[in-house]
Amino acid sequence: MKKHISLLAALLAVTLVWGGNPDRQGEAGAYELLLNPWARTVGLHAMNTSLVRGIEAMNTNIAGLSRVKSLEVGIGHSIYLQGTGLALNALGMAKKMGENGALGVSINALSFGKIPVTTNGLPEGTGATFSPTFFNLAVSYAHYFEKKVSVGITLRGINESLADVSAFGFSIDAGVQYLTGTETYPERFKFGISLRNIGSPMHFGGQGLNFSTTNPDGTQSYPLTYEKKAANFELPSQLNIGAAYDILPDEKLKLTGIFNFTSNAFSRDEIGGGLELGIGNLLVLRGGYKYELGTTATDANKSVYTGVAAGLSFNIPLRKGEDQAISIDYGFLHTRTWNGTHNIALRINL
Hints:
The protein is mainly beta. Helix content is 6%, strand content 50%.
C-alpha cells in the first residue's frame, strides 16, 4: 500500500507543475493525435482515463492495456464532423505477455478524401486531385502489480506528408491506473492519470518548399533555387486525471459514475463526467458531458463540440460462461456545426 500511495503522490505532484499557457493556444500541430477512433471511448467523450481497457487504452491511458484477458483485436472507423469528408480509421491488437504484462500495437490513419488541385492560374482547379497522408504507429507495453496498480508506456511515430512535403516525429505516452474496493467488489473504485503526446517538435521539409528565382546581384542573369525553412511546431500534449465509482456494482446491472479533468498545453482545460450502465454481459449504455473551462455560451473560440457524447456496445459471447466475445461499439459526439462525429468499432476478445 505504501508503494501504491507513493506512486500516486508522485503522479499528482506532476499535475501541480503541469499547465498550459493561454498565449500559446492553437499553436500546436498534429492535432490528429487527439482524435480518438474507438467508439467506447468516444461515447464517454474520452473521459474514461480511470477505467479504459484493452486496445482503446493506447489512445487514452496506456495503463489500461494490462487489463486485456488474452488477445484482443479491433478495427475502428470514424466519420469526423459529418459533412466535411474527413474520416479516421484504426487497427489495433493487444496480447497478454506473461502473468502481468501486455503488449499492444496500433495504427491510426486520417483520410481527407480527394482534394482538387488549384493554382494561381487555375483557381477553379486543374482537374487533378491529391490526398494528404496522416498516420501514426504506436507500440505499447503495460504491466500491473498485485492487480491494484497498472502502469504503461507508448512509443509513437507520427507522419504527415504530401507528394513533395513531409514531417515526421516521435511521441511518448505514459499512464497509471489504481483499482481498489471491498472484498466483494475489489475494483469498485478506479483512479487513473495519463500524460499524452510528449515528444519532439516537428517541421515540414521537402522539394515542395523550394522555389526558383534569378540571382539578386543583377550583374548576371542565372537561376537560383532556394529552400524555405518551415517553423517547428509542438505536439498537442495533455494531462488527464480521472476517477470512477461503481454505484451499482453487481455484474447483472452495473452502473458506474465517471469524472475526468483534462489539462491541455495548447488549448483550454476541460472537466466533465458521465455514466456507464452495463446490463449483464450483453449490452452497455454510456453517455457524458464535457465542459471547456473559461468559455461562455457566446464565445466564438469555443471547441466545435457541444460537450455531449453518447454510445452503446453489444457483446456477443463466443462460448457460454467465458470472456471470449465479439463486440460492436457505437459512439457519437454532438457538434455545434456540421452533423456530429460518428464512431463504430468491431472488437474480438479471445
